[in-house]
Amino acid sequence: MLMTEAILLTIFTAATPLMIAALGELVTERSGVLNLGVEGMMIMGAVSGFAVAQLTGSAYLGALGGIAAGALFSLLFAFLTLTLVANQVATGLALTILGLGLSGLIGEGFVGQPGVKMFPIVIPFLSELPLVGKLLFSQDAIFYFSIALLIAINWFLFKTRAGLTLRSVGDNHKSAHSLGIDVIKIRYLAVMFGGACSGLAGAHLALVYVPQWVEGMSAGRGWIALALVVFASWRPFRILVGAYLFGAVTIAQLHIQAIDINSLTFLPSWLFYLAELIKAIPSQFLSSLPYIATIVVLVIISRNRRLTLINTPASLGKGFVPDR
Amino acid sequence: MRIELERRAAHSKLFSVLSPFIALGLTLIAGVIMFTALGLNPINALYSFFIEPLTEIWSVHELIIKATPLVLIAVGLSVCFSSNNWNIGAEGQLVMGAVAGSILPIMYPELTGWWVLILILLMGMAGGAAWAAIPAFFKNRFGANEILTSLMLVYVAQLFLDWLVRGRWRNPEGYNFPESRTFTDWQTLPEIFPSSGPAHYGAVLALIVVFIAWFMMGKTLKGFQVKVIGQAPRAGRFAGFSAKKMTMVAFLISGALAGLAGISEITGVIKQLQPTISPGYGFAAIIVAFLGRLNPLGVLAAGLILALSYLGGEAAQISLGISDKVGRVFQGVLLFFVLASDTLIHYKIKFIRSTKRSAQT
Fold first, then answer.
1. Angle at which helices A38-56 and A88-106 cross, to 10°
2. Confidence (pTM)
3. Measured between CA atoms, how close is A119 to chain B, in angstroms?
4. What is the pLDDT, as a whole number, of residue A85?
5. According to the per-residue pLDDT averaged within each range, which of A259-263, A306-310, B219-223, B287-291 is highest?
6. Candidate from B156, B328, B331 with C-beta closest to A288
7. Which of A124, A144, A213, B288 is the most exposed place for a label (fewest CB within 10 A)?
């Protein structure tokens, strides 16, 4: 029982950064902007979060540092794609390339240093509930925040006037503009929100998941977050499902790699043979599972064109120059 | 102050030539700021970064060696990007090209003959093309986003290579190092000027590829189709050009060239398989393609500039004691300025003083 609980806990830790980054990108994309720079903003958030936590000794200030770094870094993307109408795909790639390089340079002095870990907040009474108590109510602050963020974004997008405005900008920027909505301003805000979320997701990696700075530690998570937005067909609650599925895949392959086959002799023989078979799979194939799963999921989701088309913001990735 | 854009009636010929140079100039200014912030004399630093590597014959050889894969990949990517297909997994195609091309030298090391090397190069191209065909097929058949699938396949390819060199393909006489056996002379690209340095015939291949691509894009119907489908998909449909066929062709071309880059790197430089065979050439080539304005001849020049940023990074590490990651930062900054400067081709940029909107006319 303890073992299962520990595994489930790590799934939560692996899923949280994916969910936060994907939620941020969802808001950005709902406003009609495709920011492929999630990976770059995430790694900038990770290095800044780690650095601020090191300098101040506080993991919470570190998280704030990650948020600020992500938002600032996304401004670069916003300026190029919104003010100068540069190609969004290319600029997003540029953001990722620059982020990976710059974070390596900034973080060089931090390699190998022990980080400041964000400790879990145990909520009294609730955490003593059977089964779910430990999982849901003795987690780090960023996990609680991620759940609040999910609910808040869903409410904002579909229950408020501002959310409706944001979606209208993403669906038809020309009509929105002719109704007097400041398309560019709203998109700036949406991009910065996405950047802040990616930054926080990165900070979570450097403060909770690994508590260390490792160059390139985002390891493709930003791209997986982008795929999750497609998987979720731009619906917040489906991102929850997707993020936890991917968290489970990541953790499952890690645990399979770590497991000692001799400790499983208590299993019935057929299960033991099965375990032996799985253990015979080379570790590199297990490590590639999250990436292969992303491709499979993208293919399956995209097959149903009508479903994707209904929810895809119609102006996604298209530049807009207001005529004056 | 506010920035407004005004669309030009026709795209500016002047700025389409000038914009890469503006970007380079701005990158140098950013370099001055960055080096000053790092507490260095910016003139000295820029000199040892960008000029010093060109002053000695061996480093010119190094420059050519580094430019070769960049140019090969970027030529393919510029065909791909021109047709509005976003293959960003060239790094993975490079790896799979290296793997496929290494099948012969590793499994049949006793083969000799001039045809062996040709077969190796062809198999490398086939490997890269096959790996690139996967995202193209998924895009055509299921509408899956090619950006994400091609990128995910990079990680898969790298892990696959890792598995090969640590397992089945590990050199039996290699003291357990994760390396394959070394290639024989029949299996390696010869050096062009063996007396002066190690630049190999991959560079000549790259030049030939640049010429073929320049001819195809500028002088043939296929090149015209690529541009029409990329810039005006609707017009392309009316003309009866198949966008799906184009997606597959574009991915196959760029994959084959990335594969060629990979196998020429293996047969010309490393001469065996290792867990890591590229310092991110597949991603840097994206910058090369844009800096070269998706034009094969421009790509050739841009490839040399990016190669210089790799060399400069190494040189600066030795002579100035700063991290070689500065080179990576330069590459990222350069791409930003390239994309920003390209705005000038289609728009006039106006700076407006007051925050109030000017009177409507």
1. 30
2. 0.89
3. 32
4. 87
5. B287-291
6. B156
7. A124
pLDDT tens for A164-221 read: 999 999 988 888 888 888 899 999 999 999 999 999 999 999 998 888 898 888 888 9
Tokens for B22, please give them: 């503006």
Task: Examine the pLDDT at A2 and tell me if it is beyond 70.
Answer: no
Which of A242, A216, A253 minimizes the C-alpha distance to A20? A242
Band (B191; pLDDT cuts 50, 70, 90) = confident
Q: What residue segments make up the domains of chain A, in order of their start? A: 2-117+139-311
The CA distance from B163 to the nearest CA of chain A, in Å, is 6
What's the farthest any 2 CA atoms get from each other in chain A? 76
**For domain A2-117+139-311, is the CATH number 1.20.1730?**
no
What is the ipTM metric for this complex?
Answer: 0.88
Residue of A nearest to B344 (CA): A84
Do residue B152 and residue A291 have CB atoms under 8 angstroms apart? yes
CB contact under 8 A, A93 and B286: yes
Give residue B221's pLDDT.
84
Residue of B nearest to A95 (CA): B332
Task: Provide the 3-class DSSP secondary structure of residue A199.
Answer: helix
Q: Is B30 on the interface with A (CB under 8 A)?
A: no
B160 closest CB neighbour out of A284, A303, A324: A284
Residues 174 to 193 of B: which have CB under 8 A from any A CB? none
Per DSSP, the residues of B59-103 read HHHHHHHHHHHHHHHHHHHHHHHHTT-----HHHHHHHHHHHHTH
Tell me the β-bridge partners of B350.
B4
Q: Is A310 on the interface with B (CB under 8 A)?
A: no
Q: Do the Cβ atoms of B295 and B70 come closer than 8 Å? A: no
Does A97 contact B at CB distance below 8 Å?
A: yes
Structure token digits, residue A261 = 């086959």
Domain boundary assignment for chain B: 65-299
Which A residues, 29 through 48, put their C-beta within 8 Å of a C-beta on chain B? 36
